[in-house]
């Protein structure tokens, strides 16, 4: 079968079904009818003489052949986006779009502040920021829905290139007038007498906390459980007790003096890392490379950097040298 018969429209429709697992959702995202999407997928299956999807009650899952074709289609689509973006960059000041998927804690203050600082130098750059769970961040990068993933990770993910990794300790946060606020580090036993708010069980910091409690034989009865960090932080700010989190999530609030953070001094509490993720073997557009270099510089704690913030102009030059 001549490869030129793999038409762009068919591949685009097919890739959207592979991404969403649904003809209905793919049609909605493409702004076409369901029958049009179904027809294009059927055309490809007839052309290749293999089924591209397994039809299941909960959706459509790519077959082995479908996975191969999806990888081909994704590489083609991302390469086309890169070429168009880099052509735009030749026309004048850096411009284009950067799509970021992140764990929810990074979206509260850290990333909005970083994006604003970057745009002060490059006002022509636009951003899309989607906050989700750690696993969904990597999935968004793998599916080409995000250029950059920023997440907490406990294990390597196939197909992901880690652009930057740093250890992520677990911190107990509290008001500055809390009895434990004089300490730079605390143990679980010291935390146990106080009311505590915890994230939901799928949260990575909650998972490390639960393992640590099990190892110590301690049982915490949280007075509040929420999948929204803002709810936990406001609970602490209003004098409700303690909560746990990573340093980057509350960095701005610590610098403003609103909260105090004490590292939880227990074995295994450094069992996760902050990762900057991109798709393996993908050539990134210049605008993404430039922002990625700037973002990488912002992640270490302020005391670990030569300066709290650096002008992104130098990052553009460095990114071009690395390209």
UniProtKB/TrEMBL annotation:
<keyword id="KW-0238">DNA-binding</keyword>
<feature type="domain" description="HTH lysR-type">
    <location>
        <begin position="6"/>
        <end position="63"/>
    </location>
</feature>
<keyword id="KW-0804">Transcription</keyword>
<feature type="compositionally biased region" description="Low complexity">
    <location>
        <begin position="304"/>
        <end position="316"/>
    </location>
</feature>
<dbReference type="Pfam" id="PF00126">
    <property type="entry name" value="HTH_1"/>
</dbReference>
<dbReference type="InterPro" id="IPR036390">
    <property type="entry name" value="WH_DNA-bd_sf"/>
</dbReference>
<dbReference type="InterPro" id="IPR005119">
    <property type="entry name" value="LysR_subst-bd"/>
</dbReference>
<dbReference type="GO" id="GO:0005829">
    <property type="term" value="C:cytosol"/>
</dbReference>
<dbReference type="GO" id="GO:0003677">
    <property type="term" value="F:DNA binding"/>
</dbReference>
<dbReference type="InterPro" id="IPR050950">
    <property type="entry name" value="HTH-type_LysR_regulators"/>
</dbReference>
<feature type="region of interest" description="Disordered">
    <location>
        <begin position="303"/>
        <end position="323"/>
    </location>
</feature>
<keyword id="KW-0805">Transcription regulation</keyword>
<dbReference type="InterPro" id="IPR000847">
    <property type="entry name" value="LysR_HTH_N"/>
</dbReference>
<dbReference type="Pfam" id="PF03466">
    <property type="entry name" value="LysR_substrate"/>
</dbReference>
<comment type="similarity">
    <text>Belongs to the LysR transcriptional regulatory family.</text>
</comment>
<dbReference type="GO" id="GO:0003700">
    <property type="term" value="F:DNA-binding transcription factor activity"/>
</dbReference>
<dbReference type="InterPro" id="IPR036388">
    <property type="entry name" value="WH-like_DNA-bd_sf"/>
</dbReference>
<protein>
    <submittedName>
        <fullName>LysR family transcriptional regulator</fullName>
    </submittedName>
</protein>
